[in-house]
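Quick one: structure tokens for this chain, please?
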Amino acid sequence: MYRAPIADQRFLLEHVLGCAQLAQLPRFPDYSAELAESVLNAAGRFAGEVLAPLNQSGDRAGAKWGNAGVTTPPGFKQAYQQYVEGGWPQLAIATEHGGQGAPSVLGTAIEEIWCGANMAFMLCPLLSHGAIEALVMAGSDLLKETYLPKMVTGEWSGTMNLTEPQAGSDLAAIRTRVAASGDHYLLSGQKIFITYGDQDMSENIVHLVLARIDGAPAGVKGLTLFVVPKFIPNEDGTLGKANDLRCVSIEHKLGIHASPTCVMAYGDNGGAQAWLVGEPGRGLEYMFVMMNAARLSVGVQGIGLAENAFQQALAWARNRVQGRPVGLRSESATPIIQHADVRRLLLTLRSGVEAMRSLALYAALQLDLARALRDAGERAAALARGELLIPIVKGWSTEFGAELVSLAVQVHGGMGYIEETGIAQVLRDVRITSIYEGTTAIQANDLLGRKLRLDGGAALRALLDDAERELAGYATSASAAAAPAGLADTLAAAREGLGVLRTASDSVGKQMQAAIDGAFGVSVPYLRLCGVVLGGWLMARAAHIAATQLAANSGERSFLMGKLQSARFYAAQTLPQALGLARVIAQGGASVASANIDLI
């Protein structure tokens, strides 16, 4: 049974990230370690008692579609009602919009818990959160008054509608049309891959739809964002008539069977009523607000599922009795955790999850600081750092997360390939995470083409400067002199990794100027390098803090020793990947740019 990783999350929030600083800022006056602990414990109970028990049954039953629309698996509607009654949708929404005002870093930690317990369920509220952010940023006062109160409470859910059959990720090819009609518009078209485009959990669904106003120019500059509700609200806030939209089918997918992925038809009977969000022609800009929030959340999904897989693999390895390890004299078989390579797999899983979790929460903290710091220059620097990290968190945590889940299947041996053990579902579910909300290549293109190119790499250099300065201070501190075995090597490996990333970043920058096709031919290895190295830096920070606490006899000894062991393994077996990735980045672009596609 899934257990929320609260101890590690608390260690990160309290000690590694120093989130107590948030309480000193006017935006988060009520934040404290005690509050975070209480909220995490409550989220863990909800995960263990409500969400996790529905995970496998929801996968087996799946969402169903019929003439009356979509029906979610047994128990999902009741779980969603408990989610709403518990006030969870409001947690990380600003107080001025009816939320509880918790920082994003705490909300992100809770998202990981719930995605690890039941990712298919959580996709609905995660998309609602993104829709709320878009309306907060660009919606008119009337739209906010009409939709936000019940979206914030979770009574109404939200979706994002981008993709069409002919468009895929090429949003410039969108054909959905709108025409003015009095105080609103009439919208017609078809959208595909709409997560929770229809369901029976919330009483209304507020679709945010990208479309093209009649006469608008071709390409992305002609796209505008609209609110298209399933039921049109009356002036008093009650639900009125059904809008001209419907789910015409749901996809039959490899995983996340409990989450309905809908084909939506708009305007079969003259046009769905739609209301303009913001200014015409700026739809993609507004939609990126949703997409940025969704991309961080999807990265967290990869982490949550990898944590789930680690827990299953660890329990299996401790209980599965088979064989005798090399060098161990025994008359009887032993649990497979005694075998060296099984330990290697488990340490890879644990350390990988911890590194990804550290980087995701660090990125979320930067977004909090970008909203809350008093100094405008410091806010801008935090925002630049957070936005730099979002494609890395999304791309690396989903790709690495899927690899880790696959390793968890390997720990199970042949039984891992059998559905009844449960680990196969995690592998099926995690596979989508590196595809939706922008494939890994799209994240890598964003990292190179927007984040590094626009500021000339300034945000990344500032991050590397801070990280190198920090690790240098650890190496010369008094605690390092009396540190546990292996800590010095862990710190040295992290510093080496930062140097490798700096050199590779300079190489990519030169390639962007000289041979841009070659640079984008190594963009995904570059994104992975960023994740591996920055994760290693935060693992080294955690190891230093654990060693300091051990020396002071503070904290739980076994937990702190585990942190040191995990960081040491990551430094020895995962961080060295940076050297190979750096070589690919320096030399591999030409092999892509010069390739003859007819010979592929």
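The mean pLDDT is 95.
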